[in-house]
């Protein structure tokens, strides 16, 4: 891997331009990271399901939607204090995904 060439700065104007360029780049990267974090916050359940399930992308999407539907039914049966919490839905999703992976491994061994 070749390092990027260092900009040769021999006067104050070049230094200011380089500083502005770096500040603009940093601002862009911060916004990009912020957008990715916001996307993850809004879609974490889908991301967890579709990246951890052991099938192809389309099958993972279908299984993930099925699990979400099952979770909605289960959460509606829980008392209101538990239903409104973030944790039960996330925990249920993780347990379900791990169960699917385990059952698939067991089925493939048989």
What report would you give on this structure?
There is one protein chain. This protein has 110 residues and is mostly helical. It has one domain. It is built from four helices and no strands. The protein has helices at 12-52, 57-77, 80-83, 86-109. Helix 1 (12-52) crosses helix 4 and helix 2 (57-77) packs across helix 4 (86-109). The longest helix has 41 residues, at 12-52. The model has no long low-confidence stretch (mean pLDDT 77).
Please give a handful of descriptors for the protein shown.
mainly alpha, 82% helix, 110 residues, single chain
Give the arrangement of secondary structure elements.
Blueprint: H1 12-52, H2 57-77, H3 80-83, H4 86-109
Number of domains: 1
Helix run count: 4
Question: How many distinct beta strands?
Answer: 0
Question: How far apart are the first and last residues' alpha carbons, in Å?
Answer: 46 Å
| Average pLDDT, all residues | 77
Runs in which pLDDT lies below 50 for 5 or more consecutive residues are none
Our estimate of the beta-strand percent is under 5%
Shape: elongated
> Which radius of gyration do the C-alpha atoms yield?
23 Å
Produce a short descriptive summary:
The chain has 110 residues and is an all-alpha fold.
């Amino acid at each position: 891997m070749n390092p990027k060439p260092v900009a040769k700065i021999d006067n104050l104007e070049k230094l200011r331009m380089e500083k502005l360029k770096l500040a603009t780049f940093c601002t862009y990267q911060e916004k990009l990271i912020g957008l990715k974090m916001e996307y993850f916050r809004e879609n974490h359940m889908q991301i967890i399901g579709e990246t951890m399930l052991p099938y192809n992308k389309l099958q993972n999407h279908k299984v993930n939607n099925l699990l979400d539907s099952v979770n909605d039914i289960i959460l509606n049966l829980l008392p209101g204090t538990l239903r409104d919490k973030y944790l039960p839905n996330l925990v249920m999703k993780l347990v379900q995904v791990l169960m699917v992976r385990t059952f698939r491994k067991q089925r493939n061994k048989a």
